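Late entry, written up from scratch paper. The run itself happened at the end of the previous shift, but nothing got recorded in the book at the time, so transcribing now.
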Amino acid sequence: MDDKSIMEGLLLDAKGLCDLYMHGAIESSTANVKQVFSSAFDNALSMGDTIYQQMTAKGWYQTDTAPQQQIQQIRQKFPSACC
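Output as recorded:
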């Protein structure tokens, strides 16, 4: 297994953890439990960002920039969802 595959697996794991922790926080019945899940979520989100940044630096995770015209069309379609 090469480094890129390992990093892809780690990123997928971090995304999965974020999903689990987010739902745990939403479903928490007490403030203490919610805080634990929220803290774990923040840590997993940070870990995922670190992995993403390293993959991007190596050219292993490339994203496309949306054309400005497409962004404007979406803003017009969903005006209340935008800033």
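Helices lie at 3-27, 31-57, 68-77.
(Scratch paper discarded after transcription.)
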